[in-house]
Design brief:
- The chain is elongated, with a radius of gyration of 27 Å.
- The mean pLDDT is 78.
- It is mostly helical.
- 0% of the residues are buried.
Length: 103
């Protein structure tokens, strides 16, 4: 039950994120249109800005990658734990059945 609730929450969150992304893209498109008109005036200034932006983007990407890796590791750990528990349970069940057979 708890798992189901979590899954539902996650999917809704994902949907929201997607919507947000789409909105952002739309906004960017609009901005782009406006920018085209202003572009010619600003080339010199832009070069400097571009470099800064690139560095920022790299930093952001690195951060994202790190987060993703951490998430993946956490998931793997969880799965491992679950597997171990399952194995233990199975072993216990088998033992019990054998004891009954002996009697």
């Amino acid at each position: 039950l708890l798992l189901l609730i979590i899954v539902i929450l996650e999917t809704s969150r994902r949907r929201k994120r997607r919507k947000r992304r789409k909105r952002r893209k739309r906004r960017k498109r609009r901005k782009r249109r406006k920018r085209r008109k202003r572009r010619k005036r600003r080339k010199r200034r832009k070069r400097r800005k571009r470099r800064k932006r690139r560095e920022r983007r790299k930093r952001r990407k690195r951060r994202k990658r790190r987060k993703r890796r951490k998430r993946r590791e956490r998931r793997k750990r969880r799965k491992r734990r679950k597997r171990r528990k399952r194995r233990k349970r199975r072993k216990r069940k088998k033992r019990r059945s054998f004891e009954v057979d002996d009697d």
